Amino acid sequence: MSDETATLAESHTEMTEYLLPNDTNDLGRALGGAVLHWMDICGAIAAMRFSNRQVVTASMDHVDFISPIDLGEVAVIEGYVFDVGRTSIDVKVDVRAENPRSDDTRKTTTSFFTFVALDEEGTPTQVPRLDCPTEAETELREDARSERRAQLEAVIERMEE
């Protein structure tokens, strides 16, 4: 394990995307692929901020599209590192829709990504240890861990049915 540390707060990333016709289906709602693309970019930025390294996407957990994002709304994509391995970085990414004319917001999507940090030769390399110096950071980390565990257990349950 690395001697370096980085904080959850240092990884925090927030992006916004204005939903235009090129990223919508024929119902005027965000294409799932566009939302996944935004989530992957946000997660990668959070992982790079945390590790100060180039990263590649190793996996993305199960995704449920909870609510649509409509044409003209703003997608707010937010991610942060909640766990690390030797070379891997786990990032929670949430998406919410905002109506800029009414300030209404709603949760639309959540998933968990794993990235691998790379050195200059493109080989997996060690990442800093995760430090959560504040109570708020510790709570975010524990909430993400619990939510990921529950999501994985639900997927396994569905597979066994």
Automatic annotation (TrEMBL):
<keyword id="KW-0378">Hydrolase</keyword>
<dbReference type="GO" id="GO:0005829">
    <property type="term" value="C:cytosol"/>
</dbReference>
<dbReference type="InterPro" id="IPR033120">
    <property type="entry name" value="HOTDOG_ACOT"/>
</dbReference>
<dbReference type="GO" id="GO:0009062">
    <property type="term" value="P:fatty acid catabolic process"/>
</dbReference>
<dbReference type="InterPro" id="IPR029069">
    <property type="entry name" value="HotDog_dom_sf"/>
</dbReference>
<dbReference type="Pfam" id="PF03061">
    <property type="entry name" value="4HBT"/>
</dbReference>
<protein>
    <submittedName>
        <fullName>Acyl-CoA thioesterase</fullName>
    </submittedName>
</protein>
<feature type="domain" description="HotDog ACOT-type">
    <location>
        <begin position="9"/>
        <end position="121"/>
    </location>
</feature>
<feature type="region of interest" description="Disordered">
    <location>
        <begin position="124"/>
        <end position="148"/>
    </location>
</feature>
<dbReference type="GO" id="GO:0052816">
    <property type="term" value="F:long-chain fatty acyl-CoA hydrolase activity"/>
</dbReference>
<dbReference type="GO" id="GO:0006637">
    <property type="term" value="P:acyl-CoA metabolic process"/>
</dbReference>
<feature type="compositionally biased region" description="Basic and acidic residues">
    <location>
        <begin position="138"/>
        <end position="148"/>
    </location>
</feature>
<dbReference type="InterPro" id="IPR040170">
    <property type="entry name" value="Cytosol_ACT"/>
</dbReference>
<dbReference type="InterPro" id="IPR006683">
    <property type="entry name" value="Thioestr_dom"/>
</dbReference>
